[in-house]
Amino acid sequence: MASCTKGDLYATLRGVAEEARTSRKLLTLELANASLLALPIPSLEGPSDAVIAGAFSVADIPRLYAELAGERTPWSDLFSVLPGIVLTARPDGRIDYYNKQWKQYTGDKRFPSLASITAALEADDSASFLEQWRRGIAERSAFTLHARLRRHPDGYRWQRFSAEPLLRDHVVIKWIILVTDIHDEVVERNAAESATQRLRFLSDAGRALYRSFDPKEVALIACQLATAQFGDAAALQFRHLDDTIVMREPTDATTDEDLERLVGENATLGEDTAIKGGPTIATIDDRQYAAVELRARSGTLGRLVIALREHLERRDRDLIEDFGERVSVALDNACLYSNERRIATTLQSQLLPHALPQRCGLRIDAAYFPCQDEMRVGGDWYDAFELYDGRLAIAIGDVAGHGITAAAMMGRLRHTIRAALFDGATPAKALALANDVVYGGDPELATAFVGVIDTVAMTLEWATAGHPPPFLVRGGEPVTIDGVGIALGVFEHAAFANERMQLPERGVLVLYTDGIVEYARDVIAGTNLLREELRKIGNDCAALDARKLARDVAGGSPHIDDAALLALCFEPVREIDMTLPALASRSEIGRRALLRFARAWNLSEERTADLVLASCEALNNAIEHAYGGRNGTVRIRAHNTEGRLVVSIADLGRWSDRAPHEDRGRGLRIIESLADDVEIKRENDGTSVRVTFGMGAAQPAVPRSC
After folding, report:
1. CA proximity to 468, closest of 546, 344, 380, 406
2. Once rounded to an integer, what is the mean pLDDT over residues 604-617?
3. C-alpha closest to that of 320 among 310, 303, 306
4. Helices 404-422 and 314-351: crossing angle, nearest 10°?
5. Is 486 helix (H, G, I), strand (E, B) or coil?
6. What SS3 class is residue 184?
7. What is the 3-state secondary structure (H, E, C) of 123-163?
8. pTM for the complete prediction?
9. Cα separation values, 12 from 52, 150, 398, Å
10. Following DSSP, what letter does each residue of 311-341 receive, concatenated?
């Protein structure tokens, strides 16, 4: 190698020093006329900022290595002025040099050895140091270790031990160990990590506590979090709960007794143990307890008591106080929300129909599912009721929003539609009146479907206001009843179109809200699933179960919104057994059932008219004469017996024994003139009229009970 000038030597030395600084490794470089060594001084994080560098002439190289391998080192003068501790060791790990800072720091006047170094380390760190040192010696590799070294007379401080091997021809000739004080940096970093952990705990605790709106569940979560973070047991007393919530791990009967005593409303822990701005601390049988008063806008809610694992530092007390505040807010919110949910649920349950009308040849079933989120009690509703003329009205709707306001709007909307239909309005007119209620209201948006079914003509007159189209199963195949109509509340004045369609004698009609089909935020997939489930049911009324149908569509997934479903199943009226109030306004229902009964048995139009007229005369007589204006019921039964149709009208009243007026008695004569046979039985418990009609050449079908 060519000779180096002094400038070249300085430039090369600076380069070696910079490389040692960035690589954080001891470097050596042999030039033609010099040998360069650079030793970084480590810091806690990042590259070293300080480097010891030196240059030796080629003639000094043999002496340099000889001294490094011997008892003395040419670096001793430099090492002695460094602020940190420097040790060197032989290849086998025996210490052979130390600078004066070792004695000044540790107060140990003896020549340091591996044993004295480990003795000066904190007990938990000495084993790690020995393991790292022995591995480094065996593998001839550098290592870095953080350990607590005793500083005389102050106690232990964090140090960074950096051991670097000095190699010659890939053989270790010396170990250089730098010990740098990093205590302040470690303390600052630990404080930052501790603060981060506290913030993370409070953040996670907040999410867990606010996840539920059930006060009891919130209290249980609070005890679980307190037990996991601070102690072995916790108890919480909340004035809105019947019982105290206790969480323990492991079970300790003595601890439980102390917890239950301290958590009581009248328990006192002593003013001298109270900490201003923090929890109250009590010590019982060398066990420390922290008590936090739970306060909110309405006043004191209760108390949380924690059986601590160890005595608390100030920051831990602050953490318990912050945790208690979050528990207080969560419990207060849960209490408010549970009250609103209870009111909304009660209101909604009272507004939904308690019973659905059931008729021969028509079965109605319904289901309502609240949202899985306990606070999202919403405005989904359904309704089915009989009009004065015997027709059947059906409706279903969905009010935007949740809670009390949505439930109240749902009630107003449902009763507006009911009143309109009872007053003779068409479905379209009923929706127009409902729009007046929703527009400008709170909430100000809703959807609805309204229909009126004529069970004799088997027709459906209907109108829709932006609602999901119902399904009609005809011949076993589900099809949608599509229509056009803007949602309620969009425009101040809205018009809706009346539609009319023929219903099958045997089929299924299903009305639903969007919560049924959008359980997984995929309305198309949910609608297709509903279609497939209806295809499985087909026209089998016995297989129609509204709740099961909704659950099968959901497939076990929770409903993300409340949901309602109204299902109607039609089938021919082969047999009648129905009881009606003894009111003239209800006789039309019986007339319609008798018409469908005669049609199901293929009776001719003339004989159908005879059967209905005769039966209705008997029905009206029972309504008028059996109860004398008092409340009562009339039972209508009809069936096919050996090709003859038999209708029975029975009451539980007592007819007047007065002689009939000259204008009276015509009904009985009409009945006798129309029927093939008439049988009247008057007994103490009521009167029954039995009329029989022959079917002629008509072929009977297999009878089915409605």
Report:
1. 380
2. 91
3. 306
4. 10
5. coil
6. helix
7. HHHHHHHHHHHHHHHHHCCCEEEEEEEEECCCEEEEEEEEE
8. 0.56
9. 14, 40, 83
10. PPPHHHHHHHHHHHHHHHHHHHHHHHHHHHH
